[in-house]
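During the no-cost extension, the postdoctoral fellow (Dr. R.K.) reprocessed legacy sequence entries with the updated structure-token encoder. One reprocessed record is reproduced below for audit purposes.
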Amino acid sequence: MDVSEFSRPAKALSSYKKHWAARFGTAPFLPMSRAEMAELGWDSCDVVLVTGDAYVDHPSFGMAVIGRMLENQGFRVGIIAQPDWQSAEPFAALGRPNLFFGVTAGNMDSMINRYTADRKIRSDDAYTPGDVAGKRPDRAAIVYSQRCREAFKDVPIIMGGIEGSLRRIAHYDYWQDKVRRSIVIDAKCDLLLYGNAERAIVEVAHRLAAKEPVQNITDVRGTAFVIRTTPLDWTEINSTEVDRPGPVESHLNPYLMVSEQASAQGQSCAQDAATPTSEAPAPGAPTPSPVTSGTPMMVPLGWLSKGRAKVPSRDRTVIRLPAYEQVRSDPVLYAHANRVLHLETNPGNARALVQAHGEGATARDVWITPPPIPLTTAEMDLVFGLPYARSPHPVYADEQGRHDGPTKIPAWEMIRFSVNIMRGCFGGCTFCSITEHEGRIIQSRSEASVLQEIQDIRDKVTGFTGVISDLGGPTANMYRIGCKSPEIEAACRKPSCVYPGICSNLKTSHQPLIQMYRKARAIKGVKKILIGSGLRYDLAIESPEYIRELATHHVGGYLKIAPEHTQTGPLSKMMKPGIGSYDRFKQLFDQYSAEAGKKQYLIPYFIAAHPGTSDEDMMHLAMWLKKNGFRADQVQTFYPSPMATATAMYHSGKNPLRKIGRDSEGVDIVRGDKRRRLHKAFLRYHDANNWPLLREALKAMGRSDLIGNGKHHLIPSFQPQTQGAYVSARRKNSTPRPDAPGQMLTQHTGLPPRPGVKGPRKTKP
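Re-encoded structure tokens follow.
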């Protein structure tokens, strides 16, 4: 296996020689039919992309980005959007692709798109014309891959998108309540591209066009694939040597001198070197788990050289995670594997990972290369400057050419007049999947690129009224924020740059963002620029000038903010700042809003039933809500998305933020419908339908003092019989509402929320 790709600098997206088909030029829309292909003069497609979303040619839709990026490289790209998966025929509609099928479930995980947190089927799908549900199957990426294989058996299948990213290793599946195999195994795809895949897809496409077999493409960062055995020229490290689980002795640092390691074990250096107690396992061979064996780890023999521990090259080191069969049956090992994976996500120091699936003759390894190198600002400008039509494909329009009524695509309506200025998030919130997919290194566009897109919206997008609905991304205010030192950034393994406090090496200046806001507002024809993305308020308070700019010019009455909780217990499991940061932000926001002569309100988001949340925590949150005059009209409980750290907590009952072991810290898990309903009920303490459940719980908790008809009580002691009585009782039991937000809704999966639902938005798959 060649590792040159891992160590050499990333090849710029603009440096490739274009494929010969570049002579056909740019398509107004990527074709969805043979008739459209004929109009373009094509006899075939080089690449056919299959997606679970309607095709919207906009940089917020993953297939549009990948398709236009490949077109930019000279390839002919066709789109099969939301095909009928009952047979292989729709997957052959554009003919046999010359190079490969590209498969994705869409901008959202197909299971989260279809099911609520209570595992109930949704009645809508915002990525489908008319908001119609049922246009994609469960686990769509797997189904689409199987149908592509049936349509053309010999065509390589390249999988991408967030559904594949979050399932690249054995993962807990909330909907089946079990650990499933890597999606690479179940989908039988040839290659999985995880994360933002422009860099990987461009290299893979050019190598396939050069007639290189897909089985030989094993050195591209940000990919996963199946192999049979570990190559002999690689050093394999068992993950339990990197981060040892179980009640065993403290593991030894493999980078210490041998004499130091011997001293740590109460031995002499000579004795240790002459009679080592363990050897490195043979590559590919199963290794006994220290969880059960209790055997202390020693430095493998191959690392010893003249009294020193020889550090293997990171570019030729692979970490073997516990096998699928092990993590399936042992939640502690599952939590351990999840922890190790998250420790190996920094492109600057991550090593390859491998995980066995199956035993004996059927054994296969899923090999995961290190994460992709983030795009440069010039490359981000290239990606967002591609010739997008910025609208749905004409096939979805009505007879008048409008995308309205039955043809309206809510997801497009949500982002129609928004601009994505950056990617990534270094917050590391454990319930969120943005970091796992996009990485924690911020990739920002240039100011000129963003301003040009605003002008394009003004000039080219039908219905523009002068209001830009969002200037943001996964987080509104991380633009151009990053580590002060590239060397420190490349060596860091911290899961968050802002928890438990803001890292001293993190630049927190908001000046580039403030400057861009001011220039954007000055563009002719732009009346208002709103900030719709979630705001990181603990960063914002480091720059009061930014909060002043925001409150004065960029809030349309309400600004969403996500403290998630008020209590230390759940906040520590979320890796979120304390409520004091929120209070400080609110103080500044209110001050600057008043100075601007505006009445503006914060809409705080809270999450119910998150791992580590006790019933008492929810009670205190409800009391905080009542004291501050908030009523949540709609709420959502914690949704365990695959591969998230909080999901590992939910499944294992352990805290992967710390060392994992049988006796390590346990986490209070909110399971069972009744307890989950209770936590939601605390968030909706004002709803009379919840009062019987809350009365029962408060009495059991010894807090009957919160039941009564006074303003200091949480819920009344009586139960209204009619809606009118309920309204009267609610008014009687309410405190003044200084921050009446109207509606507050939480949706915390880290995946793109269903448009129309207020919540942190991730705009790039």
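Residues 247-309, 723-765 have pLDDT under 50 and may be disordered. Residues 203 and 220 are 8 Å apart (CA to CA). The remaining legacy entries will be reprocessed before the final report is submitted.
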